[in-house]
Design a protein that fits this description.
This is DUF4397 domain-containing protein. The protein is mostly beta strands and about 450 residues long. The protein is built from 1 helix and 35 strands.
């Protein structure tokens, strides 16, 4: 019997399933009648790369990203070898957890969570088991797990919507990292989850109103927040068949602005007609600005000529999402470029992102190598137009040479530049013109540069 036979029933978009060859489809039905248990997996390590889940030496789930998990997979009752392989730069892999034996008992559900951190060598598996049972009609069932290595012990309040927690006791008190609750069965309805530091009424995470219909069966997993807002955590709602993210209702959005129009003067940036940044010169980038989620009217005006708007655009900033907004092109054609940022730092890799914002350069080729001689190399990215970006490149720590040339040429317009990249850090470089426009070209560097 092959383990992969039983994965065919799993349909979960964020995960890639590895198929198995089996010449005899007629043996599937009898296998499903054998005594069976159930396994699901979750990636909850905030600084670990994507992973493959190995079962009995075969890849069962591939490219499982942080905050992603599987639904329950039905397996015959026997002992399995479970391992987790990290996906490293240059298509390398390394076994970071296991192999470990997992006996699967009949009518038992196993939740396997990879948690802790790579950087401090606390990455470890947590295996929770429970009997597969039904619960009352008209009810919901919840279980809570503290899986954030960056958060202290917490109190958890599970209440009616907008209940005053100042005079009531938490549903769960002084819950430390790697601790889970028993199963909690409640009537279906509207609830609100709020989390505070232990013995403190200061709310650090708030779901707002949650509508939980009858039959809801969730593990609520508190994980490290790697997105926006001041809350140390987000919460994953892990059901029998999927994982959803519940963000803190106060997380909002975060936006940084880059003045990348070479002949434009210093500018003011207005959000909904209120100045958010004043007198920003070229080529300067702001820090991240916290904003409430929602639609904003963005205007840019010369600081010396208020009311003369050179950019006038409507932009929607989503909850729990960070953005970089660039003013690009020369002043006559100035336009906004809105990019979504991925800010999670991964301990096993450096993240490099290159953005083209040089109007004088035209389309370019980008070379990324280990030395300055590109004569025998092909570009990593070809025919890159202004306003385009590479996305996040996953690189091993080390020294690299970046060279930017006009498309089809090997004459350097920028570089060759030596850059040293460290694992666990992010780097963003924006190709730009000289002040006022034209050559020599240069870079605006952001993040950990």
């Amino acid at each position: 019997m092959k383990f992969c036979t039983h994965l065919a029933v799993l349909a979960l978009a964020p995960l890639t399933l590895i198929g198995c060859d089996d010449d005899n489809d007629n043996d599937i039905a009898p296998l499903l009648e054998e005594p069976s248990g159930y396994i699901r997996v979750l990636h909850a390590s905030p600084d670990a790369p994507a992973v493959n889940i190995q079962v009995n030496g075969d890849t069962a789930l591939a490219n499982v990203e942080y905050q992603t998990g599987s639904g329950f997979i039905e397996l015959p009752t026997e002992t399995y070898q479970i391992a987790v392989d990290a996906l490293l730069p240059n298509d390398a892999t390394a076994t970071v957890l296991g192999p470990a034996e997992l006996p699967v008992d009949e009518d038992t559900e196993y939740s396997i969570i990879a948690l802790g951190k790579v950087a401090d060598q606390t990455l470890a598996p947590l295996i929770l088991s429970r009997a597969k049972t039904e619960f009352g009609a008209g009810n919901i069932r919840l279980q809570v797990l503290h899986a954030s290595p960056d958060a202290p012990a917490v109190d958890i309040y599970l209440t009616e919507t907008n209940a005053d927690i100042s005079m009531i006791s938490p549903a769960l008190s002084n819950v430390p990292f790697m601790t889970n609750s028993d199963l909690i069965e409640l009537a279906a309805g509207q609830y609100q989850v709020r989390i505070t530091p232990a013995n403190d009424k200061t709310v650090v995470f708030d779901t707002g109103a949650l509508s939980l219909p009858a039959g809801t069966d969730l593990m609520l997993v508190a994980v490290t927040n790697t997105r926006t807002g001041s809350s140390p955590i987000n919460v994953l709602a892990w059901s029998d068949d999927s994982v959803g993210l519940i963000a803190d209702i106060n997380a909002g959005s975060e936006v940084r602005v880059v003045h990348a129009s070479p002949d434009a003067p210093a500018v003011n940036v207005l959000l909904n007609d209120t100045i958010a940044l004043a007198d920003v010169p070229y080529p300067i980038a702001s820090d991240y600005l916290p904003l409430a989620q929602g639609s904003y009217n963005v205007k840019v005006e010369p600081a010396a000529a208020p009311g003369t708007f050179v950019i006038h655009a409507d932009v929607n900033f989503e909850l729990n999402t960070a953005y970089t907004v660039l003013a690009i092109n020369e002043l006559a054609d100035i336009a906004p470029l809105v990019l979504v940022d991925e800010r999670r730092r991964i301990a096993t890799e450096a993240g490099l992102r290159l953005i083209h914002a040089s109007p004088s350069a035209g389309s370019v080729d980008i070379y990324l190598g280990t030395d300055s001689d590109i004569s025998d190399e092909t570009p990593a990215f070809s025919n890159v137009a202004i306003g385009a970006e590479t996305g996040r490149l996953i690189l091993a720590a080390g020294s690299y040479t970046v060279t930017v040339t006009p498309t089809g040429s090997q004459e350097a317009a920028i570089g060759p530049l030596q850059v040293t990249l460290e694992a666990g850090k992010l780097y963003t470089a924006i190709a730009r013109d000289e002040v006022g426009g034209g050559l020599p070209l240069g870079l605006i560097t952001l993040d950990d540069f």
